[in-house]
Amino acid sequence: MATFFGEVVSAYSRAVEEDEEDVDNENEEDQQIRKEIEQKREVYVSWCPEVTQSITNSPDKTLQCSDFVIAVGPNAAGFLSACILNSGNWVAVGSVSLWNERSKDSSRQPGCVIYRQRDFPKVLICQCTCYIAEDQLFQWTEKVFACIQQRGLSVMVLSDCSMAEYKTPDSLFSSGTPFLRALKTSRYGSQPACLLLEQPNIVTGLAAAVLSHCQVCRIPAVLYQCYSDIINPDSVTMETYKPALSCLSKLIKLDTCLSTDILRKLVPVNEAQSNLYT
């Protein structure tokens, strides 16, 4: 769990000891079933042949990377597509595939795609639009970051979040929605491009798992989380990430300016239907 200032909070529970006792009391059939479930929920990271060869030939068996940008959610992923990936200088070099109860079908799909710029291959971008279960978060962070060189690495996370999860004693009508809040690790020395996340708010999901991993491994990282009352891809919500452009422009050269037209192309248009008649 990540708090508002990026601290890693460890929670102790008696359920841990009870689960260990249940595992000891399992018979052979139960152990086999549990093992099959764990295997089915395994997280797999795959790379293209070129990257695989680079990792194999490196002394520490990792991929050299200076900056790693992770987009979690449809609006965050759409924002990166509009302002960066739309330039055409990026190529997909890896993917993260997994399965859980909220997957669209029974097959294992690559819900997270990793891109690399042709001209500056030390910058990686990961778009994650699938749901990652709580028991798969640790696997995701461990396996993805195990492939990336952590020396000199900087991480940026863009994340979608429902307005219902935002806690404040003030009225939200005065600030307007959607809006952006930042969260950083202790190693991140720059000033975030928006206000820091206020107490008692916390971050959950993959964004929290990545930030907690960076805090433990002493990797500079910053999270920009957008709070919106619209859960589907929306051009207005995507534009809320614009303050992050100032940080992204320091990493890579943006070939095109972020425009509303580009964002609208990424938003599916649904015909309005009347509910007056059935």
User: Could you give the distance between the termini?
Assistant: 46 Å
Spans where pLDDT lies below 50 across 5 or more residues:
4-18, 269-278
- Gross morphology is globular
- In terms of DSSP E residues, the strand content is 15-25%
* Run of helices and strands: HHEHEHEEEHEHEHEHHH
Word description of this protein:
- The chain is an alpha/beta fold and 278 residues long.
- Helices cover 32% and strands 21% of the residues.
- The chain has ten helices and eight strands.
- It has an eight-stranded mixed β-sheet with strand order 1-3-4-5-2-6-8-7.
- Helix 5 crosses helix 7 (205-216).
- The longest helix is centred in the first third of the chain and has 13 residues, at 28-40.
- It is globular, with a radius of gyration of 20 Å.
- It starts with 13 loop residues before the first helix and ends in a 13-residue tail after the last helix.
Compact overview of the structure:
Helix content is 32%, strand content 21%. The protein is an alpha/beta fold.
